[in-house]
Amino acid sequence: MGLEIERSFVLRNPAKAISDRHQAGVTGREPLLTLASRRLLKKGEKPKAEEQKKLGEYPGALTNWWDEANAWAPIQEAVRTWAALWIARS
User: Fold this and answer.
1) Interatomic CA distance for residues 70 and 89, integer angstroms
2) Rounded CA gap, 80 and 71, in Å?
3) The predicted structure's pLDDT at residue 1
4) How far is C-alpha 78 from the geometric centre of its chain's CA atoms?
């Protein structure tokens, strides 16, 4: 019984556990993507019709690309790798 409890609580690879936890803390949630006009708008000014049209179309295209490319996974892996290298350096 005691050995079984120990197995469930003792980390076998503490460096991996720490890097995984760091990755989860930094990149645990995908960012909320929003777009804005490239042109700086004056206070109270609204985007022109063509800009507004693009602002309406682009978020869907960007989200589709993000999902199809699985763009978040490489970012998470990069953070996990960085954390592992940092731990190994310490």
Assistant:
1) 30
2) 15
3) 59
4) 10
Half-sphere exposure of 74 (CA within 13 A, CB side): 5
For residue 52, what are the domain limits? 48-90
User: Is 17 inside any structural domain?
Assistant: no
Report if residue 55 sits inside a domain: yes
Instruction: Please return the burial class of 8, using the count of CB atoms within 10 Å of its CB with bins 0-12, 13-18 and 19+.
Output: exposed
By the 10 Å C-beta count (0-12 exposed, 13-18 middle, 19+ buried), 7 is classed as exposed
The CB density around residue 20, as the number of other CB atoms within 10 Å, is 15
Q: Give a yes or no: residue 54 inside a domain.
A: yes
Domain count, the chain: 1
User: Does a structural domain hold residue 20?
Assistant: no
Question: pLDDT of 45-74, one tens digit each?
Answer: 999 999 999 999 998 999 999 999 999 999
Cα of first residue to Cα of last residue in the chain, in angstroms, is 36
